[in-house]
Amino acid sequence: MANITKKVSWSSRADESAAAGEATPLLNGSEQPQHSRQLSGGGSIFQIGRLSTVDLEEEITSEEDSLRGRPKEIPHNEKLLSLKYESLDYDNIENQLFLEEERRMSYMGFRCLEISRWVVCGLIGFLTGLIACFIDIVVEQLAGIKYQVVKENIEKFTEAGGLSISLILWAVLNFTFVMVGAIIVAFFEPIAAGSGIPQIKCYLNGVKIPRVVRLKTLVIKVCGVICSVVGGLAVGKEGPMIHSGAVVAAGVSQGRSTSLKRDFKIFEYFRRDTEKRDFVSAGAAAGVSAAFGAPVGGVLFSLEEGASFWNQMLTWRIFFASMISTFTLNFFLSIYHANPGDLSNPGLINFGRFEGDSVTYNLYEIPLFIAMGAIGGLLGALFNVLNYWLTIFRIRYVHRPCLQVMEAMLVAAVTATVSFTMIYFSNDCQPLGPESTEEYPLQLFCADGEYNSMATAFFNTPERSVRSLFHNQPGTYNPLTLGLFTLTYFFLACWTYGLAVSAGVFIPSLLIGAAWGRLCGILLASITSTSSVGAQHSSAIWADPGKYALIGAAAQLGGIVRMTLSLTVIMVEATGNVTYGLPIMLVLMTAKIVGDYFEEGLYDIHIKLQSVPFLHWEAPATSHWLTAREVMSSPVTCLNRIEKVGTIVDILSNTSTNHNGFPVVVQVPGSDEPAKLCGLILRSQLIVLLKHKVFVELARSRLTRRKLQLKDFRDAYPRFPPIQSIHVSQDERECMMELTEFMNPTPYTVPQETSLPRVFKLFRALGLRHLVVVDDENRVVGLVTRKDLARYHLGKHGLEELQLAQT
């Protein structure tokens, strides 16, 4: 995407205001400070008024003296848009080579392509299911060993005294696992931190996030999530599954691995952004499906959260990938659990079946559910606000890998200490009956035959804790236990999300919600049993706190991530009961409405904090008065249809203008009229042409030379070589290059009077990277790119304009 050095604004009267040194007001009326930048090429200084480009690197060096005494701070402002992100080409380049290939292909060829798309989707599902299975088994084994060792140690020291040794053992074990997980993420692949959902959301929106779908990222992600879950952090392994599925999809669909430098010579037709995007959305859906055992939920997640582009055949293929993913996971887990062929436990997280009395609910309970949804929205907004400020603090101060690892180790030690303290001081003892489902019951100071119920919540993997909150008998939890657990886990989960470890936010959210939901159920039961006459009858109705735990879990997760449709279906599929469909839907809608009033969803916050030029579904509501002339970048670097090689090399080598698209213009011979638009060519295409030395003179002299084909462009995709790596001799610089065959002769154009919403709709719906703005006579006047449109957004004071920053 074009990194524009100088933007001329139609409304700012061009250079007069700049010369006079006036600051042009921003759209919301506030005055904008000016930045003077030294241009590396010409050496002239000019003032940029309204649309200034800020270089954060310069700010740091100028402030170094004042910052020597304290930790070095990276200035950060979410009112910036980063120039480091490129766009993806979701629009096919219909040049002569492409059209010739398509016309040569028979009907049978197109049928074979369609079949290979299904094969790729099947492979994506299979491999994603295998990865989920691997993560699940390794986590279960390692966590089992850890909890067994700590449990034996605690039992040994409870009687003899010296429980502090048990605490140190637990903390050291957590500490070690998290340290390994944080080191591999912080030092080897920082993009693998977190759940990866915001990054995949950006990728599917059309933003090229560096290294997001590499094989190395997948390996670090899988190892990192195992370490962070076994290390006892307040995290889940479900979010990273979505990222893992997307990486698998991006790799499989290309038929080669650029990391391993292996090309299998298959699926070569799919080596372009459009095809890759569709497969990545299938991979994300397969990830959800493997995580929750919810194939329909996976498809809807991909539709709601991920894909910006959709069609009917894609839905069917994505559903196929999701189904295969769930089936693969079930099949291999059934072999692992020694009952091969039993496919009845789908998903990494299994909420268990809700059956019998627990599934009934009455009409008068619906207002209670809606109230719980509102509580979930409020708590979710609080979680997001706290996490927002914490993330800004991290961006400013905790930006060195060693500091990130130390923070993760600190969180691990604090989590273990808090958990141990809560268990130690809790006197909530429950009888250990034959129907008790405790995996690691801890007796501690309870009588024989009893176990500490606080330990069930903390001394377990988060998935097991959620299941016990849903399904344990009424009376297994003390209200005080649940209240304290909710409070501590809320802050631990908030602190943990955003650390330099691979971790999801789904399970912690469900666990917090299940705890306060169960607390609501217990309180309601106690209120009705004391206040009503028919105490026996009424407490039977309210008896099941598991129902309220489920509603609370949905409310909390909806309040944090703000998903509605897909989350309803995921919860219904994961509980295996459609009865709760309506309450869950109402709860999620309420949580979203209440939460959105205060703060955005967690993923949107993290996208904004990374200054990504993300395009939403619609243009800002009050932007009709802006036109293409005001938002476009100009002046534009154009190329002639037959251009000198030296000129092309100089333009591509110019670091101050890192343009990626160049309009191709043609001059009418024998007239002095300005050149008119005849096509558009990309930087990546020009680099391939220079690499293969497709010059007019060479073509004439060497008649036997092979004609450049579309395969040459596909082989260079996606990591096109930089211009610095291509050697062009002095003689070759004098040659000419004919661009007619390789340029896109039919680029999308708009007149300069087109309104911003119309430009936005065209750009967003077609997945464009460049939109050429022309005048009445088809002369190029400007170029609209993603950053030109993403700059405008609705803020608290109406329409605001973000600045572009070199971060």
TrEMBL record:
The chain crosses the membrane at residues 118-139, 167-188, 218-236, 279-302, 314-336, 366-390, 402-425, 480-500, 506-527, 548-572, 578-598. One of its GO terms (molecular function) is chloride:proton antiporter activity. Residues 743-801 form the CBS domain. CDD domains: CBS_pair_voltage-gated_CLC_euk_bac, ClC_6_like. It is a multi-pass membrane protein. InterPro entries: CBS_dom (IPR000644), CBS_dom_sf (IPR046342), CIC-7 (IPR002249), Cl-channel/antiporter (IPR051280), Cl-channel_core (IPR014743), ClC (IPR001807). PROSITE patterns: CBS. Pfam families: CBS, Voltage_CLC. Keywords: CBS domain, Chloride, Ion transport, Membrane, Repeat, Transmembrane, Transmembrane helix, Transport. Residues 1-43 are annotated as: Disordered. It is found in: Membrane. One of its GO terms (cellular component) is lysosomal membrane. Residues 1-12, 27-39 have a biased composition (Polar residues). Belongs to the chloride channel (TC 2.A.49) family. This is Chloride channel protein.
